[in-house]
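Final report, closing paragraph on structural work. Over the funding period we assembled a curated collection of sequence-structure pairs, and we close with a single example.
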Amino acid sequence: MADVDSSKKVYLFLHGRMDLNEKAMNALASNGFQKENVVMADPKQAGEVGDYMAMLWMPPNPDHVKIQQITAVEECEPEGMIGVWKGVSKDDLFEIKLE
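Its predicted structure, as stored:
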């Protein structure tokens, strides 16, 4: 596991798999993230530089959570389901297996 800043928000992308919410939350918590800092990603509100993104991957049948850190946020016109996250740049950090 990589070192994570547990004080930062984690934006969770379930890609419609609400049935995996609890599994994803437990996986994040067991890898150093604080459950109270996990927020469901909203297409109308992006995170801030330094925050994390946790994405169930690969849809439609994910087997892990991809952890990324936001490196830049640019204002943009929202687009489809991605919304304002289209303007977010991020770096891949690590993956967590869903068990």
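The longest helix spans residues 21-29. Residues 22 and 28 are 10 Å apart (CA to CA). We thank the funder for supporting this effort.
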